[in-house]
Amino acid sequence: MLESILITIATAATPLLIAAMGELVVERSGVLNLGVEGMMIMGAITGFAVALTTGSVWLGVFAAILVGAAFALIFGFLTLSLVTNQVATGLALTLFGLGLSGMLGEGFVGRPGLRLGRIDIPFLSDLPFVGRLLFGQDPLFYLSLLLTAAVAYFLFATRAGLMLRAVGDNHTSAHAQGINVVAVRYLAVMFGGACAGLAGAYLSLVYTPQWVENMTAGRGWIALALVVFASWRPWRVVAGAYLFGGVTIGQLHAQALGVAIPSQLLSSLPYLATIAVLVIISRNRRLTMMNTPASLGRPFVPER
Amino acid sequence: MRVELVKRPQQSALFSALSPFIALLLTLLAGAVMFLFLGKNPADALYYFFIEPLLETWSLHELAVKAAPLILIGVGLSICYLSNNWNIGAEGQFIIGAIAGSILPVAFPGFQSPIVLPLMLLMGIVGGAAYAGIPAWLKARFGTNEILTSLMLVYVAQLFLDWLVRGPWRNPEGFNFPETRNFHAYAVLPEIWPASGRAHWGFVFAILAALVLWFVLSRTLKGFEVKLIGQSPRAGRFAGFSRSRMIIFAFLVSGALAGLAGISEVSGAIGQLRPAISPGYGFTAIIVAFLGRLNPLGIIAAGLVLALSYLGGEAAQISIGVSDKVARAFQGMLLFFVLACDTLIHYRIRISRRVVAAKPIKAPAGHA
After folding, report:
1. What is B2-352's CATH number?
2. How many contacts, defined by CB atoms under 8 Å, are there between A and B?
3. ipTM exceeds 0.95
């Protein structure tokens, strides 16, 4: 029982972790992309539709990554090349993604989808208790942890990561140092989009293998909150994602057990928890100020 | 060849006026391409989408019904966005306004008197404002990000409404459908001109709200304060304006108007509460606010345009069989074009032939 609950928590946490990790890199480069929800839902419909029509789950996953990155490119073009307001443009991306996915997904509503299988390692997966938990999950679960390690290493142990953080903390000095601020940001934004697309595909190919309109249900926004919660540090995102996975699964189990609390109230717990967490984090102003990328959300036009 | 942006010394008045129209034109072109991909004749599709709904009187009334909440919410949001407060939870404030306003006709159906309707409108306004007060207070007190909190509260409001109409407020004579009892005659917002169509007084409220806020923004000190704090918080502080009081003010105004929109929609257009009372008005109003360039008078026009896209979606579904979801994609696309065209107001586009433009040598003061 406990084992299966822990596994489902991991399934609920993984898409949040992947999307938030992408956004963390974007925000570290000084760009605030509020379009995560839109890119995620586009990833979800793309992954589902491509997997179903080609019969290959992995093709679906790759297509979702590409579409996520392409969507992020629209955002990048507007905010980085045309210097539009990042908040408004991110909102536009979310609204457009929700609308377009609803339109594209109409023919896929109610159709049974493909599921990305769990891996199975002989002997190890059969170990009692920890076997399925550690060695028998879906491949993207492992990828999400690998991604975290890679992002943490990239940001804090490589020269390119240092450049990216420099761009996010002070784009004027970074530019004076000869770093191509706009190019770095383009790459970061597209990485964020690819992650959001992948997270969306996880929802429609692993978490609940079907297409439902608006199926992301605010997860893109929760991923944004997780980045703040983690104060822009990769490993803290993991903690946050699993905390939210726990709340989500906990309320589902409470509903299944028929707890005498209205199901709608239980369903609103993840959203209320997000607010509570944001308040707790923002109360500590020094911590927030210290870690926020200083150029976050500020427009940059290179002077020539 | 290289294309680059050059900041204009002053905002371009020409493009300030033109940019919404350029954006609309580009959206129509992109829409034509989209219909081509869907295998429909673009000219027909655009006709059914944007012209046909304007040809009949009843349909113009429907336009007013849809435009009323969009304008009401949009003008409220303009105060928020001008003062740099990102309220994106208007959808939730709309729902809570609708719920608070419905308390009298649903929970106290026996209380029937001409005073019911004014009380309902007032309670709707208070409900919406109070709900918007939560992210405002959290931002003013703790510095909590208002974008995320106001949005999270939308989901909470939707679930709360869902619980009400399936649980305690379900119509006892309603065959178990998830909806409240129908509002009694005193609780219905009257139609403006019942002989010709359904448009209710909510549209009049919307126009009045836009005119009042236009006056406040362009002719009063408060309006100056809103814009100054939005453009330069530092200058605002030197002028003695309080940033946290502005946060509360902007959110309360926009929440109140969203709440009024909610109760007007429920009592004027629907007549009861249901699990879904809004086709995303609170989010579409964000597009309305930007298309109207955050100017209340512009927002009236923008609200009508986006209301037309809702109607067009329904019309196109019936006449040429494209999904009414096309409308949502259209709306999102429109916001992209609006934002992109706004760039022309602040920047000039310079196209230079040489790959590396010759750098003018400046001698900055104090240069070592």
Report:
1. 1.10.3470
2. 139
3. no
